[in-house]
Amino acid sequence: MNSLHFPGQTGFYKGKVRDVYYIGSETLVMIASNRISAFDVILPRPIPFKGQVLNQIAAHMLKATTDICPNWLLSTPAPNVSIGKTCQPFKIEMVVRGNLVGHAWRTYSSGLRTLCGATLAEGLKENDFFPTPIITPSTKAEAGHDEDIAPDQIIAQGLCTASEWETLSKYALALFARGKELAAKQGLILADTKYEFGKIGDTIYLMDEVHTPDSSRYFYAEGFEERQASGERQKQLSKEFVREWLIANNFMGKEGQVVPEMTDEWVDTISKRYIELYEKVIGAPFQAKALTDQETEACIVEALKKI
Length: 307
Fold this sequence. Notes:
By secondary structure, this protein is α+β, with helices and mostly antiparallel strands. The protein has helices spanning 50-63, 103-109, 151-156, 162-185, 224-230, 240-248, 264-282, 293-306; strands spanning 9-14, 18-23, 27-32, 37-38, 41-42, 73-78, 81-85, 88-89, 92-99, 114-115, 118-119, 129-135, 138-139, 147-148, 188-200, 203-207, 216-220, 236-237. The chain has a domain at 89-237: ATP-grasp fold, B domain (D-amino Acid Aminotransferase, Chain A, domain 1, 2-Layer Sandwich), CATH 3.30.470.
């Protein structure tokens, strides 16, 4: 979509899955594409409606958390488009974990009992709840993989001040508590997620997408305890199924590895899974809406005039 150009545009950035247009110094247009990435690699085929799914979940969650902290969102003029305030981002991702899963479990099972300065209790099994949610921040890498970092290192490296860290932590834990509450209403458990924050002047804003299946991991609440007790795998609601398919086909983004072929049938399956994710997380039917580039551009131009 980088063929689009808007009045007052001052810059363009193409991310792995999103295209960002900077308008003046205060506003940005974020288009959630149908591109899909895993292991830091963009897969060869787009997934119908994926951009709309992620954009609409994020908008819903941002609106549901405005009482906790200010956020960047101004409007969503098209199904896969958000317009918001340009913030100066903190170069850290605030990863909040309620359950011992993913990277935290891999760290734990290797025998370590601290992660990013957070202490991990003894005697936990994979997917168990932590006694209280923990924050395990990572640095936002310009290229390559994000790196784990402890809060004292964040402050020492000047990535934020001690008082900013206090605010970021308070916001992240409050947002996670709200996310868990919203998930519970849908019969889900929010297991882990990440938040990104930025500043305008001295005010800290929540940025980017929130509580989407690309940035979060959900478990089904029904049968969770029974599965834990019997050592069964937990049912997840995230894009983990895409990663599992890649791993099963010997692809983990390493040099020399080739992305397996994505058949029409598999692309359609991924699309349906994303729509299912939307309906489970939001609790409402998904209204698929495919706009042409021209229609999307017209919606954005109209919305920018109002802003």
